[in-house]
Structures are given as structure tokens and as C-alpha cells.
Amino acid sequence: xxxxxxxxxxxxxxxxxxxxxxxxxxxxxxxxxxxxxxxxxxxxxxxxxxxxxxxxxxxxxxxxxxxxxxxxxxxxxxxxxxxxxxxxxxxxxxxxxxxxxxxxxxxxxxxxxxxxxxxxxxxxxxxxxxxxxxxxxxxxxxxxxxxxxxxxxxxxxxxxxxxxxxxxxxxxxxxxxxxxxxxxxxxxxxxxxxxxxxxxxxxxxxxxxxxxxxxxxxxxxxxxxxxxxxxxxxx
Length: 235
Prior knowledge:
Elements: E1 2-4, E2 21-23, E3 36-37, H1 38-45, H2 52-60, E4 65-66, E5 69-70, E6 77-78, E7 83-86, E8 91-98, E9 102-107, E10 115-126, E11 130-135, E12 140-143, H3 145-148, E13 156-160, E14 166-170, E15 177-180, E16 189-195, E17 205-210, E18 213-218, E19 222-226
Helix pairs in contact: 1-2
């Protein structure tokens, strides 16, 4: 399925006048307005193909892996924190927001490609007293009661790829390293100096020290990505 380039979301960064249509990302783990289809990533970001047809052939042969698993769907959506790997060239990338440049692939090391960070957007108690956490990319992680007692909505889980085991977690609190992943300041990152809770009249806010100075944004735009130092390469 395609859409006209003039109507494509800005996150895709495709020129509007070169062609009429562009591939539409398939609905899935990420919202359509914040995701890029795999064929566009292979052709326009990785420059592994010159045309959409070439990109489709590469993908259909399962030469691209997402989060540790081969993907054959050229419309597969990529977005925040997804790990893309090209096994033949031993290259790995993480999709991250870059300030004033939108979503971009950031090259990562062999050590980084085996895990992913996910923001907790939901917490449910299921049968057997097991806690199930829903992450920003739609996946559900089940955690034993003893390990999940202190994990709250808004915290970050570090999970292994592709088996999705909980490796560690990071609470969203003052003093941690945060990344702004949405809004006009997306892509900025730094140490969180102040967090305020939301109320019936005002939203929760977060203040962060970044490379351009101190900035304030909405609390739910923040993803904790490390303690004193970030756990991942941020570009």
C-alpha cells in the first residue's frame, strides 16, 4: 500500500517532488505517524538500494533483522529504539530521535545490539500473580512478582534481544540521564534536574540539562536511558 508523498508524515523525510507515491508503514508496534517503513529505511537511510523494487528484494530475502529477528515485510514500521542489523556486513543501528533532524539510524556496537530499552506505558497483574508490563513498542514483558515490585509506569526496562528477558530497569527520577523522544525538543538528552507530577489542571513537567542549556518539556515526553552515563549510544 502506498500514499502520496505530499501527504507523508515529516518523520519519513522523503522528498515530495521526486516521485508521486511512497510506501506507507504497516500499522503495528508503533503509531503510523511516528514510524518509517523498512523499505524507505533500506533505500533512503542505509543507501543499500537505489529503487523501492531493489529494497523489496533485499528485504524479502531476509537480509535485514529487526530486534534480533529477520523481517521479510517491506512495510514493517521502524521507530524509537528499534535495533536494525545487517548480518552480511556486521552492521547494527538503533533508531533514535536526533535534535532538529527527526528519527535517524545511529550506528551501535556489537555489545549494544543485543538489548533494547522500552518505556513502560502499562502494568497489569495477570494469572499466577505475574506482572505484565506493556512497553512503548507494543510488546508485553512478564516479570516475576519479586522483580517487579518497584517498577512503575514511565520507568525504562532493559530487555535482551531477541528472547526479551528483563536485564535491568531504570526508574524515571531526578538525576538519571533522560532522552526527549517527542515534541519540539525531541532528540535532546541530558541529566534530569527536576520532575513534577501532573494534576487535574497542569501536566507533569521535566527539566533537563542539555547541550544547548536547560530545557523544560512534558514529563511523558521523557525516556530514561541511563544513570550517570547513558546505557546506549545517542549519536
